[in-house]
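REVIEWER CHECKLIST
Item 1: Sequence provided? yes
Item 2: Single chain? yes
Item 3: Sequence as submitted:
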Amino acid sequence: MHKKIAVLAVLALGMLSPSISQAMTPEETVMLSNAAERGNDGAQLLLAFEYLHGDAARAKDEKQAAYWFERAAIQGNVAAQKMLGDLYEQGRGVPENLKVSADWRTKAALRGNTDAQVSLGKMYLAGAGVEKSPEKAEYWLQRAAIEGNSEAQFLLGKMYKLRDSNTREQALSGNMLAKSASQGFGSAAEFLQFMENARYKVSELFHQHPADIHKLAQDGDAESQYRLATRYESGHGEPQDSAKALYWFKKAADNGHVMAMKSLAHIYAKGLDGVVADPRIAEYWANRAQSAQP
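Item 4: Structure as written out by the authors:
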């Protein structure tokens, strides 16, 4: 699990290299794609990063990256919302659209992503994609600065310094600039803040349950049944066995596990895990998954 989180961290910062891209085995790459297709927003996020940067398994494709960022963003993944805002600003994989960029950044900013808050603050300062508003710019920069974002501290300090403000704001300006300088952009503190705010869920794909996962599955625990199914399907944690994977997916689905239902819909739609593709069965499980969601 730690290896996958490390890969994710590097991808998140845009520092993909051949050695990192090879950190995922072919089985894990398939597992990731399957999970993304089945609606896991964390997997969709990681898949989007892979397409954004390109690696040994996937050629760089910014349109595919934008597609997967959007699928994760629609589900409420904060990091995906922030990234989609960036792509719309830059016109990468999607037509350049500053208004749409601001909309996605607002969604991420409202949920605490400091990078989105800073970007949104800068948009309000410049009147780019939004109506110019120093007040709203200050609001978003303050929120990010309070959380320790060094760029927000710098911009806020500069804003206070340049305007004809009171003694308290001048003091705050010096304080903010000092904090920003002491951190420096790209600092470890900023990196950790980004990772915390992003709230990645990919690690759940590789989560290792205790040794009694078999007992829990036999006892009817739907989550354990689903995890056991993914292990047998991928060969990650258990010997690869498509029949056992299918068995436990069905057990978990019958016990109400939505991701297991989505997995079965995907398996029967694509003819995976040794089954013959059957659109009727795929539709059945897709409908059950839709009905089971809150």
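Item 5: Key structural point noted by reviewer: Residues 213 and 224 are 6 Å apart (CA to CA).
Item 6: Recommendation: ____
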